[in-house]
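batch job 7 of whatever, protein = Probable membrane transporter protein
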Amino acid sequence: MDIVLIIVGLLAGMLSSSIGFGGGMLLLPVVTAFYGIEVAVPVCTIAQLLSNASRSIFGWKDIEWKKTLWFLLPSIPLTALGAYGFSVAPKNIMTCVVGVALILFAVRKLRGKLRFPQGPLTMFVGGSVTGFINGMLGISGPLSSAVFLSLDLTPVSYIASEATAATVMHVVKIIVYGKLNLVNTSVLTTGLSIAVAMIIGNYLAMRFIKNVDRKKYQKVVACCMIVLSLFLIISSARTL
């Protein structure tokens, strides 16, 4: 079991550091199969927290700090607000709506017709939407990646900046889980073990993307976003 989780953690780290998202989608089902969803969520949150923190450190010099801070300003409180609606929101329907929106975003990005103002307002609005959906549905990676992808950053800058924002949001979640007594020694140990594997995957992937062409890289990320969004829509539609 430990070997399986370490291998999946390594692959999840490589995936997240390659395109900025998707690691959680790979990790959560596997951990859930071993431990159940109540344990899997805090375990994956701990692993992703440290994984995102490592990506931030690996790309520290390339982080767009001002834009990241504008993103975080609304996303932190709105994550808590979104969590309030977690129990009453029609999660499957909302997930389908988010998936469709991400596909439209990715298609416009691929066609070169996506243009957002490169100012604080774009990051503030993007952080607001991401924070609220993150709290309500637990979907943050693809959304925050879409926001940072619109900035036309270099691959390393995009990965590191998005990871910095994700790290802070995961810290907020860990604090909440701690207050709810969802984090114990076993959860912490398992999360740390997976995190080590993810960090190794992060390091390998971020070395690879340093010399990748920016435009081609953004097209690959947009295509991956379409595939992931279709997966979200199909998975949610099955349970409607």
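notes: The CA atoms of residues 12 and 24 lie 7 Å apart.
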